[in-house]
Design brief:
The longest helix is centred in the middle third of the chain and has 17 residues. Helix 4 runs antiparallel to helix 5, helix 9 packs antiparallel against helix 10 and helix 14 runs antiparallel to helix 15. The chain is 79% helix and 0% strand. It is elongated. The chain has 19 helices and no strands. With 319 residues, it is an all-alpha fold. The N and C termini lie far apart (69 Å).
């Protein structure tokens, strides 16, 4: 208990001493070994010492599901995927309510940003004849993974299959993002609006719908309201602030747009729309040199920028 109190106050030196002391006082109590293993693993990064403690805990209490859950996560982080899978299978045998081992490895892969690997494991999980509820969860997670990999047709298939079972906001939103990425803007608008019906105030749907309107050059007043809604829900987010700044620009509020966009372009330097909106407003405020630089950057970042002709004319005009 004293070690955990030290952890809450971020006193790692005291925590380490007390976790070690507890394990020494009760060397045959699995939980003291497991707690010390997790500290050595996650807080100190001492792989060899952590492994020894995990193995001791597993020998002391092979019937405890939590031992195999934590040990599997450790093994995965060390690149021992087969060993992690074996530990997760032991966990599943002890706790029938636990996730399929293949699904858990997929989730660990996705959490580590290894999306191609996660996709492969989710596909393996689907082949294990999961329950209807778990299949639904796997499809949703696989759809999100495929979306991150920009494999849109495959992601669409998984998400649509999940939506046939139950309509919830996350897959509706995901499908809308796929529609937008593939240029199906009407379908994307319907999806974002439906997301907001299912989950009123959802800031991501509000932000994306606002930016969709900005890019399409319509519904500027609604775009401003949606962008404001999103930034109130997620303050300080650069992407959301970029939408807000572009929405201000679309509504003729140039000086406010400049104030909003100048810090955003530093945080999101590869967003062509932020450069476009900022460059246009800088030119309007007769800060031609800076405005020209941002307009040129817009075309460098996206050679097929939707408003390329407008940007080109503006560049030629102010040169």
């Amino acid at each position: 208990m004293r070690a955990e109190q030290a952890m809450r106050s971020r006193n790692l030196r005291a925590a380490e001493a007390d976790y070690r002391r507890a394990a020494d006082l009760a060397p045959k109590l699995y939980v003291t070994q497991l707690n010390h293993a997790r500290f050595l693993d996650l807080a100190k990064g001492d792989v060899a010492a952590a492994r020894a403690r995990y193995e001791t805990a597993a020998k002391l209490a092979p019937q405890r599901p939590e031992v195999w859950r934590h040990y599997a996560a450790f093994q995965f982080r060390q690149g021992q995927h087969d060993e992690a899978l074996a530990s997760l299978r032991k966990l599943k045998a002890l706790d029938p309510t636990a996730s399929l081992p293949e699904r858990r490895v997929a989730e660990l892969s996705a959490a580590a940003g290894r999306y191609t690997q996660a996709r492969d494991w989710f596909i393996r999980a689907k082949a294990q004849n999961p329950s209807d509820a778990e299949m639904q969860a796997i499809r949703l997670a696989l759809g999100d993974t495929l979306l991150r990999l920009k494999r849109y047709p495959e992601a669409r298939a998984e998400i649509q299959a999940a939506l046939k079972v139950q309509e919830t906001a996350p897959p509706v939103f995901a499908l809308a993002t796929i529609d937008e990425a593939e240029g199906r803007l009407d379908a994307a608008e319907r999806g974002y609006r439906r997301t907001l019906e299912l989950m009123p105030g959802n800031p991501l749907a509000a932000n994306n719908l606002a930016m969709l309107f900005v890019r399409a050059g319509r519904n500027s007043r609604e775009a401003l309201g949606l962008a404001d809604q999103a930034r109130r829900a997620i303050p300080g987010n650069a992407i959301v602030e970029g939408t807000w700044g572009c929405a201000l620009s679309a509504n003729g509020r140039g000086k406010e747009a400049l104030e909003a966009l100048k810090p955003v372009v530093q945080a999101t330097p590869k967003d062509p729309w932020v450069h476009y909106c900022l460059g246009k407003e800088l030119v309007a405020e007769r800060q031609v040199k800076d405005g020209l630089a941002h307009l040129q950057q817009t075309l460098q970042l996206d050679a097929a920028f939707p408003r390329r002709e407008e940007v080109t004319r503006l560049i030629q005009k102010v040169r």
